[in-house]
Amino acid sequence: MIAAISLLHLISQPFLRNALIAGIAISLLAGLVGYFVVLRAQVFAADALSHAAFTGTLAALAAGVEPRFGLFAATIGVGIAIGLLGNHGRADDVVIGIAFAWVLGLGVLFISLYATGRGAGNGTASTATLFGSIFGLSSGQAQFAAGSAFVLILLLLGIARPLLFASIDEAVAAARDIPVRFLGVVFLGVVGATAAEATQAVGALLLLGLIAAPAGAALLITDRPFVGLAVSGGLATGSTVLGLLVSAQIPRVPPSFAIIAIATAAYMFTWLATTWCRRRG
């Protein structure tokens, strides 16, 4: 009873309530998008977009504009560019490698400009981009993050069936007049927007874990695509909620670390359990 009262009191705090509003929506999006990222073997592309998130934020800070503008513009732009330059809308490793190097190079440039410009004395925004700042979200920022995440979820669900077909058998999908290239480019744009969203929760350095770990566990649990989507979204959301509660109870534990640690632990447990079941069977 005492624990329940303490938990209710904790959830009533604005910082945690805002974090849960944003975190649940963002993690559900990351879990759903991550399922297709892993299924399409595009984890390297998601990693490149995490670096684009940091570079975009630095570009916005150097230009003196809203950091979120640079964050979303860079990740979505790089995601679409990777899709357009790749084969049939898929992220080609060579293209990703070049984009990776180019984004990192721009990051070095913008760090220099930012350090010598108007924001030289304030590294809060860039640090928040790297490591996440979900407990620092205002009510308006949390609502914006949740609203944009649900728009992206609806977009993803709208293309889920043809995208699944194109992901499993690209040649047959193309033969049946499914716009494989278009779907691939749109999907990578959604991955870019998801990277921008996830950066607000766990930071650019750790967002790949929130995208890949729940999806990897879901693919181990089931080979039914839409069940896998639900499992991936559920694991990502559960990891975020539990991570936020742990971090709120133990302030020394950063929320981004707690979220990723739980998501990774869920993947490892799933891998061990499925491996044990296969050996027993």
Given the C-alpha coordinates, what overall shape results?
globular
Written as H for each helix and E for each strand, in order along the chain, the element string is HHHHHHHHHHHH
Radius of gyration: 19 Å
Please name the fourth-level CATH homologous superfamily of one domain: ABC transporter involved in vitamin B12 uptake, BtuC
Description:
- With 281 residues, the chain is an all-alpha fold.
- The chain has a domain at 12-204: ABC transporter involved in vitamin B12 uptake, BtuC.
- Helix content is 83%, strand content 0%.
- It has 12 helices and no strands.
- Helix 4 packs antiparallel against helix 9, helix 9 (180-202) crosses helix 10 and helix 11 (225-249) crosses helix 12.
- It is globular, with a radius of gyration of 19 Å.
- The model has no long low-confidence stretch (mean pLDDT 85).
SSE topology:
Blueprint lengths: L1 H10 L2 H26 L3 H21 L3 H19 L7 H24 L7 H8 L7 H30 L1 H6 L4 H23 L4 H15 L3 H25 L5 H26 L1
Helix pairs in contact: 2-7, 2-9, 2-10, 2-11, 3-4, 3-5, 3-6, 3-9, 3-10, 4-9, 6-9, 7-9, 9-10, 10-11, 10-12, 11-12
Summary keywords:
281 residues, single chain, 83% helix, ABC transporter involved in vitamin B12 uptake, BtuC, globular, mainly alpha
In short:
The chain is mainly alpha-helical and 281 residues long. The chain is built from twelve helices and no strands.
